[in-house]
Amino acid sequence: MQPMTNGSNRRDPAPSRWSYRIQRLWLTPTFRQLMRVGLPMASAFFFAAWFLNDPGTREAISEKVAEIRRSVAERPEFMVKLMAVDGASAELAEDIREVLPVDFPLSSFDLDLDQMKLVVEDLDAVATVDLRIRPGGVLHLQVVERLPAVVWRVDGMLELLDETGRRVAPLAARGQRADLPLIVGEGADDAVPEALSLLSAAAPLEDRLRGLVRMGERRWDVVLDRNQRIMLPETGAVEALEQMIALDQAQEMLARDLASVDMRNVQRPTLRMAPHAVTELRRIKALELGEPLQ
Amino acid sequence: MNDLYQSQRAMRNMRQAAMQRGVIAILDIGTSKIACLVLRFDGPGHSRENDGVGSLAGQSSFRVIGAATTRSRGVRFGEIDAMQETERAIRTAVQAAQKMANVRVDHVIASFSGANPRSYGLAGAIDLHDTVVSEHDVARVLASCDVPDIGEGREVLHAQPVNFALDHRSGMGDPRGQIGNRLACDMHLLTIDADVIHNLLYCIKRCDMELAGIASSAYTSGIASLVEDEQELGAACIDMGGGATGLSIFIKKQMIYADSVRLGGDHVTQDISKGLQVPLAVAERIKTFYGGVVATGMDDREMIEIGGETGDWEHDRRTVSRSELIGIMRPRVEEILEEVRARLDGAGFEHLPSQQIVLTGGASQIPGLDGLAPKILGNQVRIGRPLRVQGLPQAATGAAFASCVGLALFAAHPQDEWWDFEMPIDRYPARSLKRAVKWFRDNW
User: Going along chain A, which residue ranges are E strands?
Assistant: First the structure.
């Protein structure tokens, strides 16, 4: 029998059972993949997690990153030294400088142009603005101002509105902008385009026109001098006004002593006469019919 | 018999699983060397472009991707003798082959030469229920073969149907689908010692592998070294190994007889060692370098240093002439061949239409054997080398690797055996049902 223990010092060429098993394990594709990819990835992950576990390390890293970023951002090539505002009136430019509190010189990396654009466009008097950083360290704002189209009186205050109904600026006295038409009433600012088309349709009545009144936030009254009112429907207001003007031109209706013309039902314009005119009419009728006077 | 059927079927399933994984190992456990090949099965068109006809008529659906040979330890006469030693040798070979293939192999098909193989010819016949022969009928006729008493402690290694006869038409390879009344079959049964299989199973299990098949090396070397027409017309393959010489007789591409002579090249080495008083390793070296079986006048003058390490100058400077060496080797080779001749005669080889004999195996490389063998075995003798298979290293293409290559071919295209057919229902033991009924009766 062979000796049970390998007593002779002759090397056994056969692999031991364990080395054989380990070699077979290494030849297993999944194990190999796990060891070649999974283990390094897992160990890297754990090492990173252990390293970042300390808040001091995290702070140091973020500080270092911030420092590097700053050293790049503060190069003179990236510095913005002044702001130029184009296309704005003096007081608007002043407002813009007020709402953009930028301390120059500043790195262009620290300028959030989109945010600044939103801030500037929040100003009522600004329609659009283009911001760009021009070479030479100039922050250039190209502003397009809103143009006031109407004066709006509500709650005893006067506002200037542009043609879309956006507020442009407050107004101290109506007389300052006598060239602009007047609209009145709650919710009138929501219907400024309609008001403008009504006003252009009312051009033949221009010398008599006092203004437009928004009634119940849904329809317009045209107010003329002598407190005459033309009540317009909710829809088709322009057509109703044109019809009214045609009536006026044919029969000089508005020149008569009317309190109001109700055009809310376009099929059937309704007149309300002034009180004096009513008594006068009754008197004439009585005379015609020969009834005794009271 | 039933156990065997189940275990062989399990091995076939294992082989199927290995095919699906695409990698299988071949292990030839010989007396002088243990060879391990790792085969990769890719199917056609994978390892080489598919031009319609595969090389070797489609036999090369596999490719050898790993090969290793190691000196055998603990094997005598082709049987495992010292299990630990053999296990280590198997491990060495398998590890080296795996390393070369760079793939882990879990399934192994093994062959060995010893274990007293004994051949039986079985015959069976049934009347067909239907006129058309179905696969079930084939299974039935195989099951109807009356098994001889194979003896205590023996197992069936191969049970191959070699011939089918339908009514009076004989010599059919495949009777399925044919019409007739009576189906008969001849089956070749090869039995071996059960202990040898158990030892082998144990060794392979200790190597963490599963046995996916088992074959006699006489059979596999016949597959590898007989060319197709020899297998068809009738031939014997003599695999002269180290510890045992296997012989297998083929006709109509079926093995009909296999046997093994417990003599081989190692006995020649032993004779040299004893005759020249040299260690076995030196004797082996002298045999491989200077060996021969036919002496000529030139050989008297060719002196061989046989050396020694005793320190005695006279003893360490000994020389022998090559004719002396041949004089030692020849009687033993003659003895082997005569023993083979006796086995062939016993098997009735002389009744075969063609009596081609192919010598292969490591010991067939002795120079001059092609002159000696015809004197004993008859005229039609040639020295055979195994088929070339794809990817086999040059070092493993020699005659010594015939059974290895044959085993690879066997793994790729196994012969239909008895256990490849479903066992007919009536063959299932009725006893188990009775036992269940009895258990119920006893317990309730």
Answer: 79-80, 82-86, 106-107, 126-134, 138-145, 150-154, 157-161, 167-171, 182-184, 209-215, 219-224, 229-231, 258-262, 270-273
